[in-house]
Amino acid sequence: MAQFIKLYNDNPNPKEIAKIVKVLQNGGLIIYPTDTIYGLGCDITNTKALEKIARIKEVKLEKANFSFICNDLSHLSDYVKQIDTPTFKILNRALPGPYTFILPGSTSLPKAFKKRKTVGIRVPDNAIAQAIVEALGNPIVSTSIHDEDEMIEYTTDPELIFEKWQNRVDIVIDGGYGDNQASTVIDLTTAMPEIIREGKGSLDIL
């Protein structure tokens, strides 16, 4: 059964963050808060954990549209081909924030993503998510968790999330009620930015 860990966004407890990081390094799965909806995540470098998430989502790992959660833009060069100044300016304006940006993948992507031409990059404006990634030292791969209720697309109550997911993940983090609106997804690999999904993030940054 998963651990249920309460954290406060204004001051995440470093001891609890260290515990979460250890679980990630050992191939564990976590459910954690972001600046939009709760996400299901694992260490980007752990192929077995990535395969577990792909099985849960019922997708093939090589075809999965997972996001890379970074704590700032310093990890970009590890996963993304060199980007031009206009693109960087958009990223700088928008992040951290409720956006996922599709960018051209580099040749140094982790093994599981080697064949990908593009990657989705996210820097959530959430201190808990940022503290986990910073302490881990590399991004976590993430996907959203959907609600079975067709009227509500995303579960926002961490206790209900725990009830539903406690036997499928290692840690559920209670960071307070989540949002029920996903991130805005923007493709920056095209000549002009292309809106793939309009979500919480305003389009004024373009």
What does this entry look like structurally?
The protein is an alpha/beta fold. It has one domain (3-197): DHBP synthase (Alpha-Beta Complex). The chain is built from six helices and ten strands. The protein has helices at 14-25, 47-57, 76-79, 85-94, 127-136, 158-165, and strands at 3-6, 30-32, 39-43, 67-69, 99-104, 118-122, 140-144, 171-174, 184-187, 194-197. It has a ten-stranded mixed β-sheet with strand order 1-8-2-3-7-4-6-5-9-10, sandwiched between helices. Helix 1 (14-25) crosses helix 5. It starts with a strand and ends in a 9-residue tail after the last strand. The mean pLDDT is 93.
In short:
The chain is α/β, with parallel strands linked by helices and 206 residues long. It is built from 6 helices and 10 strands, in the order E-H-E-E-H-E-H-H-E-E-H-E-H-E-E-E.
Q: How many DSSP helices? A: 6
Low-confidence stretches: none
- H and E order: EHEEHEHHEEHEHEEE
Helix content: 25-40%
CATH class: Alpha Beta
Number of strands: 10
**Total domain units:** 1
Which whole number gives the mean pLDDT?
93
Q: Which fold name corresponds to the CATH topology?
A: DHBP synthase
Label the CATH architecture: Alpha-Beta Complex
Q: Return the structural class.
A: alpha/beta
**Radius of gyration from the CA trace?**
16 Å
Give the CATH H-level superfamily. DHBP synthase
Q: Describe the global form.
A: globular
